[in-house]
Amino acid sequence: MRAEAFTVSPARNYWEFPAPPIDAGTVRAVGGAINRRHLLRVSCTGDGEPATLTLEPHDLVVWAARWYLVAYDPAVGRRRAMRVDRIRSHPPTHTPSNGATSRTATPPPSS
């Protein structure tokens, strides 16, 4: 059995608004799926109705004192950036992603 290492370091909040707390279990689940390159099922809330999505996670990013998950959503065929404080992970899928997270953007047509 292989142990996973995933470290979260504290960082100073240079913005004046407080960042909402995020669930450590969600960060572990997302980080583990990224490290293993497995599909990730999450429930998310936000602007619309709550939804359950299956994503190909790519990276965790901190911007403006908030954690974001950058992932490819095969259901709509595009990348998404989702606030981690607005998602809850489901049990691990143990399903390898099909590699869409490594796709690069299509270059614009030549003029």
**Can you give the mean pLDDT?**
81
Envelope shape: globular
Round the Cα radius of gyration to an integer and report it.
Answer: 15 Å
Helix content: 10-25%
Largest sheet: 5 strands, antiparallel
Order of helices and strands: HEEEEE
Strand order of the largest sheet: 4-3-2-1-5
Structural write-up:
With 111 residues, the protein is mainly β. It contains one helix and five strands. Strand 3 (66-73) and strand 4 (78-83) form a beta hairpin. The longest helix has 13 residues, at 24-36. The protein is globular and about 40 Å long.
Features:
111 residues, mainly beta, five-stranded antiparallel β-sheet, 1 helix, 32% strand, globular, disordered C terminus
